[in-house]
Specification:
Blueprint: H1 5-8, E1 16-17, H2 22-32, E2 36-41, E3 44-50, H3 51-56, H4 63-66, E4 71-75, H5 80-88, E5 94-99, E6 102-108, H6 109-117, H7 129-141, E7 147-153, H8 156-163, H9 165-182, E8 188-193, E9 196-201, H10 205-221, E10 232-238, H11 249-269, E11 274-276
Parallel strand pairs: 1-2, 4-5, 10-11
Antiparallel strand pairs: 2-3, 5-6, 7-9, 7-10, 8-9
Helix pairs in contact: 5-6, 7-11, 8-9, 9-10
Length: 287
């Protein structure tokens, strides 16, 4: 499950008074390892004091004069990926986590960076599965149709047995690099688990099929370590709806991932490099 804002927020966050001196606040920052403070005046938030403000400001200045940061708000049940996007937009230094229009905690850049690191696969550098699930959910919320592709390396277990796990790891890194290099902008990629990768796009099934065929061709042409011959099976699901999908978006995404996974398994069994999830085996009505 995708982690939510309230699961990573600081509940007992520190605020500083607008008329406190910088030396007093620096002492607090050093003792608590806090990198960003909401500034309040009579209990109301009036600004944000960043670590950079603490470094560059004279000790005799007060918070009200030194603060330069900005803040935003995120609802408690929003995904941590949403918080990441707020910070990436560059217009906030701290997020207030709200519930029923009341601040119940804060999220700083340091917290979100630490959290997102947990969602990165160390071996390949790709995000893990909840990243593409979030991106798929966002696309569906925007009214876009999505196509999900599942890539599965053929006979990967035999590679580990014959050449060793270190070589197998190198193969996985090489596959990840090919996928990153040739997946067009606007697609979202993850290592789903083991030797499986997933890709989400808002392209229709036909466009997605052409894109995946190109990627599979790149893999076929690539010279892998130890001269090992590598092939990959792929399955595509979704990408046929003309109207926005309705109902439980999360359930829809999981269903499409499952369909794409089944299609890639079918492709592997039939020694076909690509199977479309809706071609015969899947009862997915396009409306």
């Amino acid at each position: 499950m995708i982690r939510k804002a309230f699961e990573i927020m600081i509940k007992d966050y520190i605020t500083v008074d607008a008329f406190w001196g910088m030396k007093r606040i620096r002492d607090i920052a050093e003792k608590t390892d806090t990198d960003c403070f909401p500034v309040t005046d009579n209990g109301k938030t009036v600004g944000v004091l960043t670590r950079n403000d603490l470094i560059k400001s004279h000790p005799n200045r007060i918070a009200l004069d030194a603060m330069s940061g900005s803040y935003g708000c995120i609802e408690a049940d929003q995904p941590v990926w949403k918080a990441k996007e707020f910070f990436e937009a560059g217009d906030t230094d701290i997020l207030f986590v709200t519930q029923d229009n009341k601040a119940i905690g804060v999220i700083t850049k340091k917290i979100i960076e630490t959290e997102i690191c947990k969602h990165v696969d160390i071996l390949t550098g790709l995000y893990r599965s909840d990243y593409v699930i979030y991106k798929a959910h966002k696309l569906l919320e925007q009214g876009s149709e999505i196509s999900i592709t599942f890539f599965d390396i053929n006979s990967f277990g035999n590679i580990d047995k014959e050449f060793g796990h270190a070589v197998g790891d190198n193969i996985l890194k090489e596959i990840a690099q090919i996928l990153k290099s040739f997946a067009p902008a606007g697609t979202f990629l993850c290592r789903y688990g083991g030797d499986e990768f997933a890709l989400v796009t808002d392209k229709c099934a036909e466009t997605c099929e052409a894109m995946v065929q190109d990627i599979l061709s790149r893999i076929k042409q690539y010279e892998f370590c130890e001269g090992i011959s590598i092939s990959v099976s792929a399955g595509i699901a979704g990408g046929r709806r003309r109207n926005p999908r309705k109902g439980n978006m999360y359930k829809t995404i999981i269903n499409l991932i499952n369909l794409a996974s089944l299609a890639s398994t079918k492709a592997k069994k039939e020694k076909d490099n690509l199977v479309l999830g809706y071609s015969g085996m899947i009862d997915e009505i396009a409306i």
